[in-house]
Every structure is written in C-alpha cells, then in structure tokens.
Write a structure and sequence with these properties.
Number of helices: 10
Largest sheet: 7 strands, mixed
CATH superfamily: Vaccinia Virus protein VP39
CATH class: Alpha Beta
Order of helices and strands: EHEHHEEEHEHEHEHEHHHE
Strand order of the largest sheet: 3-2-1-7-8-10-9
Shape: globular
C-alpha cells in the first residue's frame, strides 16, 4: 500500500481530486467524460506537470478496450456505462442520455500500474463494485475506501458490504452527502495536511479518520441502512411522495426535524470503510 497515493474513480469536475492534492497526496484520477477530463486537465495542469496528478481518460469496465458511455446533458454527474442506471433515470426522472464511445480498462490494471492506494474513492454511477472486485487479486487493500452504495435495494448494498468484508474491512460509516455543507476538516488534521475546505453536493467530503461520524460494525451498518432505505422509499429522492410534497410545509418540517437530529435531508449517501489492518494486509 502506498500511503502517499489516492485513487479517485469518478473524478467529475475534480473537486475531490483538488482537495486530496491540497492535503499533500498524489492522485490518480479516473474520468470517462471527455468534457471533465479537458476542463480539469487545464485547471490542475500545475499538478500534472509536477507529477502529483495523473488523469486517466477511461471508463472502468470488466474488460480493456472501448465501451459505450452514456452522457446526460442535463446532469453532468450522471455519466455511466451502466444501462440499468440509464433506464432508472429515464423511468424515474424522464432524463435522457447520449451514447458515446470511450476507452475503458479493468480496475485491477490501474492498481497493477500505479499500486494499491491509501484511500480509494469510487463514484461511478451504479458500478462501484467493479473497483472492489478489482482489489480481490492483491495481497493488500487500501486502508480506507468509500463508495456510493446501491440505493435501490437492501440486497445490493448487502452484497457491497459483504465484498468489503471479504477484502478485510471491519469498520463502516454511512455518510449523508446532504450534510456536506456543514462538514469541516479537523485541526489538527488526521489525514495529510490541514485544509480549510468547504464541501458541497459535488464532493465526497473528508475521508479516512476525518470522515464525519463514528465507525460502526457491519451488523449495525446493515440495520441503519435498512432504516434509511425505508425512509427513502417513502420520502426520499425516488419516494412515492416526491412530486406531491417536495417543497411543502410538511416536507420542510420533516427535513428540519432531521437536521435537528443531525441526520440531514434524505438524499445520496456514501459508505466509508476502514481496513482491519493499518497496512491493509489481507
């Protein structure tokens, strides 16, 4: 495991990547959308020039070569190779995607080239488990990982947690990204250098020991995730009350109640995991 390295899978507009660089880490950032690759390469060119940033303009797939990639013109963070994810966006939101052809590679080939990172952040819209599966063939794993879990079914998230358990992860957090605006980095820092960063809905927020909340065991995590999914099914971004009550007095009161309890609005969540071994030995 390379303690100086972070791999950012799903770079998007590069806010997470820039945060990791500011904290002193080297970053390998992976992004399939050519618009984001071009913009971030120009904005962060000084880090590319000094060797601290490598941007791979590829999609993660189960094979090396080329693949269909679906770009959403209205939501630039919804790019994906998952046709199931595209169908969901069409059915739930009526949001269409445009098909383009991009280069792709297996995640294990990235790790073979650059090494096992200290922290692995994954957000690739429906296929985060491809990166977890890609770690199975290595003797070590990242000290910390974060993924965007399956928010459609308990069974899907259960499978992702089981895969992380198989890799040696024993401590978990469920992080509500809707709370990002209230999150601050600790001083003194627990990961890398101190950065007075402000986070938003297009960032994953702090990582590792700086990620918000307390670590919990896998059983407690599964119980809490089942409860969150039940709330999401009724009141969340795909819930049955979505169109009828969003923005109403009742909806605002419900979200205020959740904020007072430190839970934040229902929305998108990340699973963070900490390896049982500080050196990531399997």
């Amino acid at each position: 495991m390379d303690r100086s390295l972070i791999i950012d899978v799903g770079m998007h507009v590069g806010k997470d990547t820039e945060f990791y660089l500011a904290k002193g880490f080297r970053v390998v950032a992976i992004e399939a959308d050519p618009r984001h690759v071009k913009a971030v390469s120009e904005r962060l060119s000084r880090y590319i020039d000094d060797g601290r940033l490598t941007i791979l303009d590829v999609a993660i797939q189960t094979f090396d070569g080329e693949t269909d990639f679906f770009v959403n013109p209205d939501h630039d963070d919804w790019g994906t190779v998952s046709e199931e994810f595209v169908r969901r966006n069409v059915e739930v939101y009526g949001s269409e995607h445009e098909r383009v052809t991009v280069k792709c590679r297996r995640f294990e080939s990235v790790v073979e080239e650059f090494g096992v990172p200290y922290y692995l952040k994954v957000d690739i819209e429906g296929l985060d488990d491809l990166c977890l599966e890609g770690l199975l063939g290595f003797d070590t794993a990242p000290r910390f990982v974060s993924i965007e879990p399956d928010q459609k079914s308990f069974e899907g998230a259960f499978g992702e947690l089981a895969l992380m358990w198989r890799l040696g992860y024993r401590d978990f957090k469920i992080v509500n990204q809707a709370n990002n605006r209230d999150v601050r980095c600790p001083q003194p820092p627990r990961e890398g250098a101190y950065v007075d960063q402000r986070f938003d809905g297009h960032t994953s927020g702090p990582f590792g020991e700086e990620s918000p909340g307390a670590w919990r065991g896998v059983e407690e995590t599964l119980v809490e995730w089942r409860r969150i999914l039940a709330l999401q099914a009724r009141f969340g971004h795909q819930g049955g009350w979505e169109g009828r009550w969003r923005g109403s007095v009742a909806h605002r009161a419900f979200e205020r109640y959740r904020r007072l309890r430190g839970q934040g609005p229902l929305g998108w969540y990340d699973f963070h995991a900490r390896h049982r071994d500080p050196n990531g030995r399997r």
